[in-house]
Amino acid sequence: MNYIGIDLGTSACKLLLVDEAGAIVNEVTHEYPLSFPHPGWSEQKPEDWWDAVVTGVPELLQGFDANAVAGIGSGGQMHGLVALDAADHVIRPAILWNDGRTFKEVDYLNNTIGKDKLSALTANIAFAGFNAPKLLWMRENEPENFGRIAKIMLPKDYLTYKLTGIHACDYSDASGMLLLDVQHKCWSKEMLEICGVSESQMPKLFESFEVVGALTKEAAQALGLPESVKVVAGAGDNAAAAVGEGVVRNGRAFTTIGTSGVVYAHSDEIRIDPAGRVHTFCCAVPGAWHVMGVTQAAGLSLRWLRDNVCTKETNEAKEKGVDPYEIMCAEAGKTPVGADRLIYLPYLMGERTPHLDPDCRGAFVGLSALHTRAHMIRAVLEGVCYSLNDCLSVLSEMGVVTDDMKVCGGGGKSEFWRQMLADVYGIPVSTVESDEGPSLGAAILAMVGAGIYGDVCEACETVFRTKETVTPDMNRGKEYRKFYGVYDALYGHLKDDFGALAKL
Question: Of 7, 99, 157, 237, which one is the catalytic site residue?
Fold first, then answer.
């Protein structure tokens, strides 16, 4: 039998067809538009997500027996607010995770309701992307739409509804709404009351591998699948990626270097940072949680440098028919650890972990006449590693111990950057054979739901395979720690200046 894993991303929907051994037998990607109706706003039409699935699944099944598909799982972008009316029609475009309109509501939640209370109720504090401040924004700015809300959904859960006709959500995705009591795995009555909504408006909660239902007749016909196909609740993108990376036991973690950067660690005990520097969410393994730090501009920093500074390297890459980042990393490798005393702060989009400061901005510190583009490239690569190390340090403070670190995302494909990360972390860094993350994790969850494996951990131990491991160089690590000490102090020196700049 085969299984379909869906990764509902911000820019595209990726679908995998996976066999029972975890081998990917086919994949299809469909993009959809992203709307920015006002500065700082970010929206999408949920109908476009469903159209991508309806178009993509038949393409995915070309040359394969549709009757051999036994299950579907979804992983996807978290925090998006999908509001349905009493007829299950979408009320307004979904407000996405990267939408920044709710700064007033975030201030109200964190400073009037209070961070301590939010942390006690939900294990987290408020961020602009979370659903609770978005509901407060709707209540204040779109009262007519707010009054029509019959069901509150998340992006991948809208797909689950379209597939099964059931309003469902898993615990991992629900954790990012600021409406879930993460410790006790139930909707927080007090948070719902603060936001002016009722539990009847919330979807039913499931474990990520639990079967929500089978395909409706309409969905089966649209997708070309039998009605017997089981649909599991799935997981938020990072929790699904953890399953795809085999990070489902204590001591295991992964680092994602995409546009943003994530350090995600599994924990069998709930651990909460009272300062709110990291998120504590339920994970796809029942009775366990994950702790996650985020740096806003990881791969984005290198892309910014490529687009604005590295014209020579980009042109050379075109001539050789290779990725520009390959040329850039080769240039960086010609310079020493510390880039001849040049340090980069990767705060192009403000920062989340550990500073929680929307006003801080990127900076090169120590720039001199001897520095070249190669030094700047190396400084950017190192600065992102230092920022990710900030995340790992917060996890360590919380007692989350990591000795098995996977790396994924576009940045994880660079051998040079992986080695740098291992040297900075001081622990081995590994890649896995399949770097499909959320979509593979979602397919594995569907296998568990179908009974192919007894639980998520068993499935991961069977399917997951390490591809390559790099070990840290202790001598380089010692040098990196010297520069990291300076890096670590710079934010404190510049914090007030960042704030002053923001007010000009």
Answer: 237
